[in-house]
Amino acid sequence: MLTPTQKTTDRNLAYLFLRVLLGINIAVHGASRIYSGVAEFAHELVSQFAKTPLPSGMVYFFGVSLPFVEAVIGVLVFIGLWSRLTYCAGFLLIIALTFGSTLRQDWTAAGWQLLYAFAYSALLAFREHNVYSVDGARTKSQQEERD
Length: 147
Known about the structure:
It is built from 6 helices and no strands. It is mainly alpha-helical. The protein is elongated, with a radius of gyration of 18 Å. It starts with a helix and ends with a helix.
């Protein structure tokens, strides 16, 4: 039987593992696209969206920006900094990606994006378990100063 302290520690660890995994996934999405060439990625997106009503200039700008946004959000999720804001930003990014996927009728990608949305939602909903993070260390430090 687990003690209440062990249960809390297990939940904190589970939260850490999910946060780190999502952070790596998102950060490497962005970093690999940056490394491979942002312009090439953006041009590929423009061709994928050619049969949609979105203007190619807007798609290109989104494609050039997306890798950097992913990299920043991913690193912030990974280290657990500004978590609430970061999870909301990540969720908004997934909304934008889902909009594009559904506009292209890419139901497979849209389905995968639901999993990312679920992960961001879980991290936001259970943020009290975000103790092994930069935010957690800052909160602990502030509590110690008050005591």
